[in-house]
Amino acid sequence: MSNPTDPALESLRTIARQQLRQDALAAAEKSFLDLLERQPQDVEALRFVASCQSERGEHEAALPRLQLALTLSRDDPASWIQLANAQMAAEDFSGAATSFRGGLSLAPHIFVARLQLGVALEQQGQSHEALKAYFMAIESARLMHRWQDDATTAPGLRDAVKHAVQYVNQGRRQLFRGVLDPLRERYGSAELARVERSLAIYFSDQPANIPDPRQKPKFLYFPDITSQPYYPRRHFPWLEALEAASAAISEELHAVLAQERSLESFLGEAPPQVAGGMLRSSSQLEPAWNAYFFYRHGQRYDDHCARCPQTTAVLDSLPLVRIRGHAPETLFSVLSPGTHILPHTGVTNTRLVTHLPLVVPPDCALRVGDEEHVWQEGRCVTFDDTWEHEAWNRSGQTRVVLILDNWHPELSEAERAAVTDLVEAIGDFNQSCEIPVPVV
Q1: What's the mean pLDDT when you consider all of the chain?
Q2: Exposure check for the chain: N or C terminus, fewer CB within 10 A?
Q3: pTM, full prediction
Q4: d(CA 99, CA 117)
């Protein structure tokens, strides 16, 4: 590497940089070559001379210099990516993929390098890995408001980005539709017709045509089923057993509340701006929406279940949505005095939300669509949370409901199985791409 105490070397470096600023590239290359004569391990000189060689198509000459530069600066993502680009030009796609991954491990936000990784993998016939790389490149770019259209895409990248988008669209369609093949064989295609339409809506292949603009599912819309804010009790005969257990559940709840450290924020470690967009307070107190989970995103909280055995036994007897990594979602939802959960919408209308109210002070209510509902202790209410909804506690006491999720009653056995397999597949793919998974 360069020796900053050697005035002669630094003089050559200064001259080379000045020539570079003046666009005297040939002179700059000669000055850096002179520097390399005296100091063969100077990273800056190695990389610049190699870039000049690559520009002239002298890839075989550039590669040894770039490999040496990388050996001397392995923590520099630019060294990895410059080597990868030279390997791509030399059609060493395997080596390029390794080098791109090395650079991305240090700087995962460089979405252009991820796009190029996709090209290298596609060239090797690694279709699924290429699909993931292209998907991550596109998602990373769009998070930074790039590649949304031609105006937000560099001209030299437009064809490559359009190819990646087409590759991702085709690959994901094939992947997720393939997940349904065993169910098509078991139940027949006709039984999955609504699921197919739901998937087409997910891919924007057809419009959702949601009948009410207040219903805004964030993730998956299932067509041709009843859409309404609240659902009659007759659809859920198991509500009576749940309500009959409300006294035992309340007893276990109060034991939990006696140890407030058992609770956690429902929003988790959400940034202040996210929490601020979800909660307000009608008092001088800070708003707080806390939870005591039995299941979250399908993961069982064994300690909590053990502390509340009667509640757990009832929950385990109910026909809850069960999707690996996503559901059920069951919890004591604890709303502090003065807290207002602001209007928001849920992710999918394939499942509904049921509340069993346990502690309901005055001035507490739930609004779904245009309909306001005042909780009654021990009396369940079931609603579709993909409709805009909000809840508030304007009292000076704590409000608690038991929350659980259950299937929309109009989904058939085949459709429930298909939605389960489909959501798991989408979640698995997104997780493998390190993309945030929607919560179902």
Answers
A1: 94
A2: N
A3: 0.87
A4: 9
